Amino acid sequence: MTKTPTNFASLYTEALSDTTWTVPQNYDACFNWVYDTGRAGMMGLYQKGKEFQWDATTRIDWSQELDEENPQQLPEEMLPIAGMDLYKNMPAKEKAQARRHFQAWQLSQFMQGEQGALICAAKIVTQVPDVDSKFYASTQVIDEARHVESYRMLLAKFGVAYQITPPLRELIDQTLRDSRWDMTYLGMQVVIEGLALAAFQTTRDYAQNPLAQQVNAYVMQDESRHVAFGRLALRDYYPQLTQKERDEREEFLIEACYLMRDRFEAREVWETLGLPVQECVDFQYNSPLMKTFRNGLFMRIVPIVKDIGLWGEKVRKGYAEMGVLDYADTDVEALQKNDDTIARELDARRDHIRSTIQAGIAAS
Ligand SMILES: [Fe+2]
Ligand SMILES: [Fe+2]
Q1: Which ligand neighbours the alpha carbon of 226 most closely?
Q2: Does residue 75 belong to any structural domain of this protein?
């Protein structure tokens, strides 16, 4: 496996048609002369944001390797085509190739989404009127840069990467173009971060590979603060809006959820591997196991949406139709606590391994 590419773009399965992407913006940069940091919850989050900074190059041991056959050592059934005859009949080498490509595709989307989060967090710093929110969002900017850095390093170990998918790009584009400050939170902090958290959790909890576990657990430790930030900011703001304004948000929200559920497919992988794309996509869409995985992606979004007060009929009906309404009662704070505990446990395990190695060196 390739380790440190001098040119990341060379890892892409297809040549880039453009090395940059620009999204036109139309919003005001907002200064605030009052310097009021009155919200204890927001300032508490800012304090945590400062205290929990970490360095991806030292907290994670990058000399750890991925598995040759199954990079993150994930259960086979997590590959969407695992139940298809065409996969079952593949020689072992091709199966390994399919696992490597699908995992790289998924991590690539994490990395691309993280760059979206980086840009959105910076936009929030500029645009949001409250000083305490500006303070907190500034810690998120460095968090997101570190996440891009971590996934980039992990993907370099795969030796293959995928470009951003059209639906993710469309959602980031819509989120950034909107000139209303709360829409950046709604699109990025609630929808994209919420989906990402659930996806990271699946990898963190099922991957047997220590490097993959660490990257996902440490990123999640930060992400749960980001979701809490969106929740705090919007919970205060949405009750002040008119019903019509709230309806507009609900419409955007439910459309974004459908977009990510129905159009976020790994087509690019099946294409690259030379498999019948539509057959793979249809299988993935109809397989009960994949349906369960897809619904699980909403575990972190639904309770937040309810909490921020975008809980009108349209949203409830949409979530009921998607089969994810039951997540409304998820205990988000318990999940966040657990994200923190798992990351700390991995730190303890890593420290134990390091000190054992050092003691061994000293004794020899
Ligand atoms: Fe992130
Ligand atoms: Fe984030």
Answers
A1: 2
A2: yes
Determine the distance separating the centroid of ligand 2 and the alpha carbon of 272, expressed in angstroms: 29
- Domain housing 74: 8-14+40-353
User: Cα of 117 to ligand 2 centre, how many Å?
Assistant: 6
**Is residue 52 in some structural domain?**
yes
* Spatial distance between the Cα atoms of 197 and 253, rounded to a whole number of angstroms: 17
Residue 75 Cα to ligand 2 middle (Å): 26
The domain that holds 173 is classified in CATH as 1.10.620.20
Q: Please state the pTM of the whole predicted model.
A: 0.92
Contact 327, 302 (CB under 8 A): yes
**Helices 210-237 and 40-51, packing angle to 10 deg:** 160
Q: Which long-range contacts (CB under 8 A, 24 or more apart) does 135-138 make?
A: 135/37, 135/42, 135/43, 135/46, 136/42, 136/45, 136/46, 136/49, 136/229, 137/229
Number of structural domains in the chain: 1
CA of 68 to the centre of ligand 2 (A): 30
Among residues 19, 21, 309, 27, which one has the least CA distance to residue 168?
Answer: 21
Is 271 a member of any domain? Answer: yes
User: Is pLDDT above 80 for 302?
Assistant: yes
* pLDDT surpassing 90 at residue 330: no
Phi first, then psi: give them for residue 184, nearest 5 degrees: -65, -40
Tally the residues of the chain.
364
* φ, ψ of residue 71 in degrees (nearest 5): -40, -50
Inter-residue contact 66 to 159 (CB < 8 Å):
no
Bridge-partner residues for 161, per DSSP? Answer: 12
Q: Which ligand is nearest to the CA of 120?
A: 2
pLDDT tens-digit series, residues 171-227: 999 999 999 999 999 999 899 988 888 888 888 899 999 999 999 999 999 987 898
| CA angle in degrees (0–180, nearest 5) for 27-31-33 | 155
Q: Is residue 77 part of a domain?
A: yes
User: What mean pLDDT do residues 37-66 have?
Assistant: 94
Ligand nearest to C-alpha 111:
1
